[in-house]
Amino acid sequence: QVQYTCEPEELPSGEVRPRCFPIPRIFRICPDRPAVEITKLIKIDLKTGEIEMPDESSSLLPKGKHWRDIRRYNPEAKAGSSD
């Protein structure tokens, strides 16, 4: 997956336009487990695209949850309310 970060760039004509740069995001996707972003844990060779994951990466990964297991926190809900 690729996201972009953009910043305004002023052209010689005085016109301002966005200039965007890609931000690659790498996810570990295993069967029957939630996807976990590993972008900050890996080393990427920008010339070859080769990715190196450290051996201890499994212990460094945050614990992921399936979307069905996510519960939204609602500070306005009253304790004991069924809403």
Structure description:
There is one protein chain. With 83 residues, the protein is mainly beta. It has a domain of 53 residues. Helix content is 5%, strand content 31%. The protein has 1 helix and 6 strands. Strands 1-2 form a two-stranded antiparallel sheet.
Architecture blueprint of SSEs:
Elements: E1 2-10, E2 16-24, E3 27-28, E4 36-37, E5 43-44, E6 51-52, H1 57-60
Q: What composes the largest sheet?
A: 2 strands, antiparallel
Helix/strand-derived category reads mainly beta
Q: Approximately how much beta-strand content do the residues carry?
A: 25-35%
Helix content: under 10%
Record field, number of beta strands: 6
N to C succession of SSEs:
EEEEEEH
Which regions contain 5 or more consecutive residues with pLDDT less than 50?
Answer: none
Radius of gyration: 20 Å
**Mean pLDDT across all residues, rounded?**
79
Give a quick precis of the structure.
This protein is mainly beta and 83 residues long. The protein is 5% helix and 31% strand. The chain is built from one helix and six strands, in the order E-E-E-E-E-E-H.
What are its keywords?
two-stranded antiparallel ribbon
